[in-house]
Design a protein that fits this description.
Length: about 100
């Protein structure tokens, strides 16, 4: 769990704008200190030296509680699955022998 930043404001469409010190990866899950899921990072905007993360919320009710407390938000990066490759294609018997 990595620190994301503090809530700056909420847009008219219900997105959260969070001031961050270091830009998080897009798609990272955003949680509170008590590990309650808020949403996911939708976009990173602003200047390079002081970026903002736009968070798309999963639940509109949790936004009002965040506005009152001004809690710090955190993000969790999902582990990537190992690339397992594609299935091997079956060769047709009798036609085109394998190249060596």
């Amino acid at each position: 769990m990595h620190k994301l930043g503090t809530l700056s404001h909420v847009t008219a469409s219900g997105l959260l704008v969070v001031s961050v010190s270091e830009p998080p990866p897009i798609g990272a899950t955003v949680v509170t200190k008590s590990k309650k899921i808020i949403g996911s990072v939708f976009d990173v905007i602003g200047p390079v030296n002081k970026p903002f993360a736009v968070v798309k919320t999963h639940n509109k009710k949790s936004v009002s509680a965040l506005l009152e407390r001004k809690d710090s938000l955190f993000f969790v990066v999902k582990k990537k699955h190992r690339d397992r490759g594609q299935r091997k294609k079956k060769r047709k018997k009798g036609r085109n022998p394998p190249k060596r």
